[in-house]
Every structure is written in structure tokens, then in C-alpha cells.
Amino acid sequence: MIRKILPLIIIAVFIVGGCSNPSPSVSDQTIKATASSGAYITNTGSDTIVNLALAWAEKYQSLHPNISISVSGGGSGVGIASLINRTVDIANASRQIKTEELDQAKKNGVDPKEFVVARDAIAVIVNPENPVSQLTMQQVSDIYSGKINNWSEIGGENRPIVRLSRETNSGTHVYFLENVLRMGKKDDKTFFAQDTLLLPSSQGIVSEVLDNPNAIGYDGLGYITPDLKVIAIAKTNQEPYILPSIESVNAGSYPIARDLYMYTAGDPKGAIKEYLDWIMSPDGAEIVSELGFVPISR
Amino acid sequence: MTVREVQQFYKRKSLNRILNSAFTEKIITGLIKLFGYSAILFVALIFYYLVHEGIATLWEVPFGTLLSTRWYPIEAFYGILPLLGGSLVVTIGAAVIAVPMGIGVAIYIGEISPRWAREILKPFIEILAGIPSVVLGFIGILVLAPFFRRIFAIPTGLSALTGAVILGGIAIPSIVSVAEDALDAVPRSYRDGALAIGATEWQTIWKVTLPAARSGVLMAVLLGIGRIIGETIIVLMVTGNAPVMPTSLSAFVSPVRTMTATVAAEMGEVAKASVHYHVLFFIGIILFLISLIINITATSIVFRKKKRSERILS
Q1: Are B107 and B206 spatial neighbours (Cβ–Cβ below 8 Å)?
Q2: H/E stretch holding B28
Q3: pLDDT tens-digit profile of A18-40?
Q4: Using CB atoms and an 8 Å cut-off, which of residues 123-142 of chain B contact chain A?
Q5: Where do the structural domains in chain A lie, given as residue ranges?
Q6: Whole-number Å distance between alpha carbons of B107 and A241
Q7: A106-147 tens-digit pLDDT
Q8: Quick one: pLDDT at residue B1?
């Protein structure tokens, strides 16, 4: 019996050994590396910011090889929830922290500090086959709330409108609800039409808009590819229709633009403070414009 | 044999004796028993956890809200009916596709196909069962959804239909393997008897073999449905996730939001111990109960007492 079992045991030992042996040495190295510099920064949150945050992190790590930064997405809510649970150093958010979240943070003994790191325009996009090229804010609001249901009502072809939105945990979704559907009015109780498709990613919206001539979607300027058709927006039907761009956002003429935030638990110290200072320096701002976002003009 | 070899031989023999002794046997059977019962323990613990986290829903959210038709959790609209309806629509759609096809494939493999075709088909069906669902989700978004939008002239292909077709596809392998085992277990004498009194091959299958295997086939169907209702990532990717209450047949070609997709999409952002968090766990309880009912029904069919006629025949 032993003779039968022995080879199995040997194989098992090899497999276990093979799996586990190299990994401790690798993690030992990373621990040593971070211990000598004391800097391992975690950064989680908004999917809108994730590409920007990654670009910052890559550049910063190449300038400071002893610092490692890990970046992940998941949505603004995820980032802030992680900050409250103390599982992340910097939370990215495409909206301001909500009062309930602030209360919860205080309950956990976390004092979130806010930094505006860039600005973003939200572009309204349609399929390139769609002849509609400009809309007023009121028309966009009416489309998403379900008052306008056919493209022919706003000068397009006789096609049903398929409304695409991000999931409700997305900061972009909340921003769009408050500033476009409700046009910034606090007591307005307009909702997204119930048949609005809630897609889990920005990419999902882009690929459906590219494929479907019925679709209308919205997404951060950083996600807009040249093969999408971007709609020019006017604040009212008396004002000019403006396409989103770095210039029009900085000039304040494009109406659907917002600030992007980073939050830390308490005042940032040490490596985290240095990183945030660098992000808001001209070097950081250069990366902001490279990725299609709008740098904060100071 | 040298003296040394003889010594080793006896040493080995005595080791064997220790391993085979009643004591070790007791330990081994005890361990195996423990593993067996641990499944019950895990199920009980999971259910306890779900109830513990989700039951607060019942007093935090009024019944009127819970049974309403608007799901918009960021403004405290917790109507779960559209989500239940969405799961139901996708499940029915997938079952309509998977059940006839799954049983058909099982009949072909078990009763009709020549041996070589069976040797090829079975492994391929098993491979189908092993394809990761996220891959099928991608195919759904990029291929099936645009295709269905064009051929059915529906506003968008991200709909219950696309979800149902893919879920039907992943349920087929589980239905086939269980149903085929059930058909295989029907005694050869049944078929011989039917053919001997002049029944055609189809009559034998339809009137004799399939009815004789019906409890196993029914269990296959229920297990397939259980697989469909619990699937998450595919429905999240391809059904559009619009929480619309299905009220007519057109719901099958419209976007729907299932319970599983809702939990998957919203669990990540929710603040712990908030009302929304409790409601998501409450949805988890509902899903757990549904699959529990399906499994209990399936096992009770298999273990039910055989009818007198069936006992005589077998």
C-alpha cells in the first residue's frame, strides 16, 4: 500500500513545493523593496478616472522607482467605500462624496480630504449613421426621461430611441441624473426612463453605440473614440450648440462638464502627499491633457 | 534474497498491517463521513449568513415599496418585482430552448447514434460545458446581440432573447449528461419487447424508453433550470439590465434586469449595513430559496416510491 501511495505523496510534495516555493521569495523582495522606501500606494475608484490614474501612476513610478502604486477601477462608490473601510490610500471619484458616505466615514473615524485633480466633459454620443448632430439640454433630458421616444421627434429618422446609461454605482450616472436629467434642480424628481439600459462598463456603451443606429449614450471625453459621433449641446435653444473639447470646457461654454476628485483619509502625509502634489503640478497636468481630460487651470 | 532484502520485505509487510488495521480504518471512515456532512454544514451556514444580513429588509422597507415595480436603489426605490420578472423571463426563454434540445441530443446519443458518433459527440458536449461564461458573454455582446437586432428588427439586441439563447446553450450539456444516464438505465428488454411487437424505432423511443426514464429526464430538466437561474455574468453582459416589469410577450425581446445581475452589479459599491445592502442580501435569500425548491423537487422525483406497475416491469 505504501508503495502505491508513496509516488503520489512525492508528486504532491513537488506540486505544492513548486507552487509555493518561488512565491515567498518574490513577496519577500517586494516587501523589502517597499520597506526600504516605505511607499506602496493603493488607488481605487471611478472607472472614468482609472485610465488617467494609471497613466499618472506609470509616469510617477518611472520617475521614482522605489515607489509602487496599484490602481484599480470599480466605480466612484467602490473607491469611497474602500476609503471608508481603510482598504485604500487614495479614492478616485467622478462625483463629490455624499453626505451619507461622510457620516459613515466619520463613524469609522475616517476624515476624507478632497482634491480636485482634473475636469471632465461628458459627451453625448450616437451611431455615425444617425443624422442628428445637435441637441439642447432639455431635449437630452426629455430623451433620457422617456418623453421623447423616437428619433423623428428631434429631426432624425423614424427609429426608436435606445437609451444607454452606466450602472447606478457610477459617478457619471449620478452626475448625468442631477445635471442633465434634472438640469441641476434639487427638487426635480425626474428619473431615467425605466427601459434605459444600465451597462456595467464604459466600453459596453461605446460598443453598443457603434453597432446600433437606434442608440444614444453618454461617456467621459477620455473614452470617446474618433469613430463615434459626438452631439453638440446647447444650454437653451437660444444659445449656440457646442462640441465638447478641452477649450470649450475651460471656457465654460460646454454645459456637461464636471470636476474629478481624489480623496484621502485625513490630510495626506509622506509619499501620498508627494504623489498628490506631483499630480497637481504641470507635469501631472500634461498627462491629463494627453488622455483627453481637461487640466485644472490655476 | 539477501538478509537485508528479507528484512525490508517484512518491514513493509508490518507497515501494511498497521495501515490496514481497524484503527486506521475507523479514522479514515470518520474523516470521509465528516467531509460528507460538512456539505450540510456549509449550506446551513450560508443560509444563516444570508438571512442574518438580509432579513432586516422586511422591517426597513415597507411591503408596498418592496412589491412595487420601480427599482432605483440610489433614491430608495426597492421594488423587486421587475427583477423577479426579469429572471423569470430569461429562465423561461432559456428553458424553452434548452429542454427540447437537451432531451433531443440525449435521445440521439443514447438511442439512435452509431457508436462512433457517440464517441465524438459526448466529449464535445462536455467541452461545451467547460467554456467560461465570460467568453460566452463576449460572444453575446459582439456577435449575437447585433445579429438578433437585425433579423428580428428589435430596437436593441441587448435583450432577454440574447440572454436566453446563451443560457439555453450552457444548460444543454447538464441536461444531456443527466438525461442520457437516465435513458441508459432503461433495461434493454423494454426496447426489445417494443420492437418485437412491431413498434418502429421512433415509437419505441417516444412511447417506451422516454416514459420509462421520465424521472431521470425530469431531474435533468430541473438541474438545467437551476443552472440557468443562477447564472450571473452572462446576463449582466447581454440582457441590457433595464429594470422593466415584464407585462407582455414582447418582454422576451426587450431588455430585462435579473436578480443575479442586480446583486453582481450593485454589491461592490453598496455601503455595508445600509438598506440597499440588506435588500441585495434579501434578493440573495430569494435566489437561494428558488434553487432550494428546484433541488428538493428534483430529488423528491428521483426518490419517490415507484408505482406498482413500474416495480413489476423492472
Answers
A1: no
A2: helix B22-54
A3: 444 333 333 333 333 343 455 89
A4: 141-142
A5: 120-251
A6: 64
A7: 998 999 999 999 988 899 999 999 999 999 999 999 999 999
A8: 60
* Residue A95 backbone phi and psi in degrees, to 5: -140, 165
Looking at CA atoms only, how far is residue B144 from chain A in angstroms?
12
* A161, A169, A198: residue with CB nearest B269: A169
Q: Residue B83, exposed/middle/buried by CB under 10 A (0-12, 13-18, 19+)?
A: buried
- CA nearest to A272, candidates A89, A46, A37: A89
Helices (H) and strands (E) in chain B, counts: 17, 2
Q: ipTM greater than 0.95, yes or no?
A: no
Q: Which three cell numbers stand for residue B233?
A: 455574468
Estimate to the nearest angstrom the gap between the alpha carbon of A159 and the chain centroid. 31
Residues of B in contact with A3 (CB under 8 A): 12
CA distance B169 to B142: 17
B145 touches chain A (CB under 8 A): yes
Distance CA(A202)–CA(A247), nearest Å, equals 24
C-alpha cell at B75: 433614491
SS3 label, residue A196: coil
Every domain of chain B and the residues it spans: 3-54, 62-313
Is the Cβ of B68 closer than 8 Å to some Cβ of chain A? Answer: no
Residue of A78, A161, A194 lying closest to B243 (CB–CB)? A194
Least confident of A134-138, A185-189, B141-145, B146-150: A185-189
Distance in Å, alpha carbon of A90 to nearest chain B alpha carbon: 16
**Cβ–Cβ contact A2 with B under 8 A:** yes
DSSP secondary structure of A24-84: HHHHHHHHHHHHHHT-EEEEEE-HHHHHHHHHHHHHHHHH-TT-EEEEE-S-HHHHHHHHH
Do the beta carbons of residue A272 and residue A263 sit within 8 Å?
no
Has domain A120-251 been given CATH number 1.10.287.1080?
no
Q: Which CATH architecture has domain B62-313?
A: Orthogonal Bundle (1.10)
Q: Is the Cβ of A249 closer than 8 Å to some Cβ of chain B?
A: no
Chain B residues near residue A146 by CB distance under 8 angstroms? none
Kindly state whether B85 is in contact with chain A, defined as any CB-CB distance less than 8 angstroms. Answer: no
Whether B18 has its CB under 8 Å from any CB of chain A: the answer is no
